[in-house]
Amino acid sequence: MSEESEKVVAVILVGGPTKGTRFRPLSLNVAKPLFPLAGQPMVQHPILACKKIENLAHIYLIGFYEDREFALYTSALSNELKVPVRYLKEDKPHGSAGGLYQFRDLILEEDPTDIIVLNCDVCCSFPLTDMLAFHRKCGGMGTILVKKVSPEVASEFGELVADSDSGELLHYAEKPETFVSDLINCGVYIFSPEIFIAIQDVKSARHDRAVLRRLTSFEALQSATKTLSADFIRLDQDILTPLAGKKKLYAYETQDFWEQIKVPGISLRCSALYLGQYRTTSPHLLAKSDSKGAIVSGDVYIHPSAKTHPSAKIGPNVSISANARIGPGVRLIGCIILDDVEIEENAVVMNAIIGWKSSLGRWARVQGGGDYTTKLGITILGEGVSVEDEVVVINCIVLSHKTLNRSVHEEIIL
């Protein structure tokens, strides 16, 4: 098949509200995939990586958020990228593979040779072009992006064993209780259309088992919450595990950065990683010190509509969103400042996320310890939080519309 006739479709799995509870309070205001990292929605980073693929025919977002959450975003992005971007809402959670299968007719409508599938809550460099070349060379049903991590954290993810020469996936175990390998699944895949046959086989096998074993009404009631429906199919346990060792799946290892975005603290880490990536991919997005704006140090994104005083010092690893106002003498380090935030003179923000329409008074200090993995390792202010003059907030989570007139340390303020 010639390169001109090879079409690629990208699918990004965005999940839904029941999967975003760990991202609160940030997900109370915006769908988690639209939360900004390094000045762009979380989901836009993998979308832009997909856009670099030749012969990309369509990008689908699959999840169970309400349609209105993504309508304006996908419409604007389609016009900007000149590639159709469409959100597909599941009627209920079907699992990562089940969601694909539900919309198989749309995904296959362009007759693609390759289907890129990514989890939205993944932060990495998305080496899709090289991964696609490897996938086509191997000629298998699927290729998985993998990364080597320390044995101490490997069990938190899907662990796998791959042939060191061919890359063939030999064994896969999702979050095993005993150590299997220091290679983990990064949640980025490339499949051939044959993947839908594998998903159909799982559905059929489950249906056949249900028909063969007749249950009493009491047994059926008891098992309803314990067994998976035929429609709920996961890529990892239900597809990767049984196909491992059958010369169907291959592993492509990345040496670059990778994080899974499950809790708000990690979003600070990921924002910094993407800002660092901008140096080579999008240097025009990085702010520079000039006579009109603040003093900038390191990797910093400042939205064009934000106002920064020339005496403020910003960076490294800072992202400032639309209509934010940064006053004189302000110091910002390792933080995300969201839309319409006002920070008054000589305030300090370190290792923190400042929510939409929040305000920090003069000489206020909002900071975290910088441990991205613990609940109170950074400070998070929800929407419309007011921190009054000279108040110090350290390692706290503050829900929306609170006024802090006293200093607080390691508290969750509801």
From TrEMBL:
GO CC annotations on file: cytoplasm
GO MF terms, alphabetically ordered: nucleotidyltransferase activity
Ranges where the Nucleotidyl transferase domain occurs: 10-208
Pfam families attached to this UniProt entry: GMPPB_C (PF25087), NTP_transferase (PF00483)
Family recorded in the similarity comment: Belongs to the transferase hexapeptide repeat family.
Residues in Mannose-1-phosphate guanyltransferase C-terminal domain copies: 297-412
InterPro entries attached to this UniProt entry: GMPPB_C, Mannose-1P_guanyltransferase, NTP_transferase_dom, Nucleotide-diphossugar_trans
Protein name as it appears in the record: Uncharacterized protein
Taxonomic source organism: Selaginella moellendorffii (Spikemoss)
